[in-house]
Amino acid sequence: MRLFILFWLLGSLSALFGVETAPTLDSKYHDSSKCKACHGHIVKPWSHSYHARSHYKKDEYFRKTIDYVAKKTFQPVNAIKVYCAACHNPRISVTSTDMSYEIKVLMGEDKNSAVNKAVNDSAISEGINCLVCHNINKIKEHLPPSKRGVHRIRWNPVGTMSGPFKDADSPYHKTQYREFFDTNSKQLCFVCHANERSIYNVEFTNTQKEYVKTDKQCIECHMGPKKEGFASSLPIDHGKPRKRMVREHSFMGGHFKQLWKGALGLKAKREGKDLSVTILNPNPHNIPTGFGARELIVEVTYRDASQKVLATKSVSITPHYRDRDGKATLPHLATKIIDNPSIPAQGEKTLTFPLVKGSKQITIEIYYRLVNDEVRGLLHLKEAQWSEKKFVNRTTLEL
Ligand code: HEC
Ligand code: HEC
Ligand code: HEC
Ligand code: HEC
Ligand code: HEC
From the alpha carbon of 169, which atom of ligand 2 is closest? Predict the structure, then answer.
């Protein structure tokens, strides 16, 4: 608790020395509905992505984590919302809170505060929307790695859209070419997909640190290959939309079955009295790479010559988070992580199982789950998706 207050105070001090506030979005560029008329084919896939769900009201896991962190640290829920908004809702107009805000809340004077208005503003209700990525003017790479999300960027004036084209020209908004949509787009992803830490400064995810063996851009997999299409459906090229090479704004990740199938390789062999199972990760980041409590499950089924199941075994590969008293907690409140067992980027991990007497055929299956039992239990998550097992791969060994 004391450490937490110190952490908070340090944050507040930096606020005194000037935290940038975002330019307020006006009605012309308020949210994705303002882009639909000419970029409807982009708004649609984006709206199915988890970038579009990154708001307190739209993601059960995010909401319950915020409530839990607030309860355990005796902080106002709004203060935690502002803290998390740095990456989850970067268009928020207040970027840090201080002690004077906490006092206001205690005195029951929060209702009309700038903080309360900021967290309830409809401009942030779409999470990471068009006006987050495409309104970034500059990524401040000179800042220390701990500065992320809104603290790492400089916004454009409200009506200027940054993008991948040097020759774009729109009647609705100004355009501006930026390398971080083109040759170096992973820099844009690392504004947020890096250095996720607990409030006690324990790092639980850092996709940027894992991502060392390749020059591949994240979007090659998470937005798919470049295809011929158009950027805007407005007929600006002799009465037709201008042809462009584009990608799909799908940002599919852990929540989608499609990408999981075959995402990891699986090899099995007999080694003396044991069964050796190797999980291979051809991807350029660890799997899981994402948010703290993701889980891989390896299931082994032993059958005899007549296909009768003799035994099954299941192993969970997932980190566990502990508070100062050694009790189970969430990633954001961890003082310690008990093994962080992801499969390393472009690497592998081998598990050993005993052979069961009489088995002639062994099937090994691997599944992925968004939230492990421990964290799901702490938060009482209700939606089926958090416990659903997504199929990744299967192999069979005949003995
Ligand atoms: C997480 C960041 C992010 C968000 C959110 C986002 N974009 Fe993009 N956008 C990109 C990237 C990266 C590219 C470059 C893709 C490529 O290589 O073609 C891009 C490209 C574009 C282009 C150029 C044409 C194309 O498809 O390549 C347009 C237009 C565009 N985005 C509009 C939008 C609109 C409208 C929204 C909101 C529905 C949106 N974007 C949301 C990152 C984002
Ligand atoms: C009235 C139509 C219209 C509306 C509304 C509109 N745009 Fe555009 N936009 C265009 C046109 C036209 C282009 C240029 C397309 C081209 O050159 O291929 C463009 C280009 C872009 C680009 C690419 C810029 C570059 O330099 O690469 C982005 C990003 C973009 N728009 C984002 C948005 C966002 C975000 C919104 C909503 C706030 C929006 N647009 C609303 C017509 C529109
Ligand atoms: C402004 C911060 C920010 C930026 C920039 C950003 N992301 Fe994200 N991204 C997030 C957050 C926050 C989530 C989690 C949202 C949730 O689940 O509620 C997320 C989720 C994801 C997911 C997981 C989706 C799923 O289904 O589980 C993928 C994949 C992803 N982002 C890819 C990208 C790529 C690729 C880029 C760069 C083009 C990018 N992101 C840029 C913040 C960001
Ligand atoms: C070679 C393809 C590839 C590239 C390049 C790639 N990823 Fe992934 N990523 C995957 C696969 C496969 C998965 C696992 C299936 C899934 O979650 O959709 C994944 C999962 C994720 C997830 C969800 C992870 C989880 O554990 O829930 C995030 C977030 C993510 N990637 C972000 C990124 C970012 C950021 C980059 C760039 C630094 C990137 N990816 C580059 C293939 C790729
Ligand atoms: C440094 C940027 C950053 C900050 C600050 C941050 N997050 Fe995240 N968060 C992310 C990214 C990136 C992802 C997506 C990774 C993935 O999907 O696996 C994510 C994913 C999540 C998820 C998983 C959502 C899902 O649908 O599976 C939860 C829950 C979450 N964050 C909670 C929080 C809370 C609560 C806070 C504040 C205490 C917070 N985050 C602060 C970057 C951040």
Answer: 14
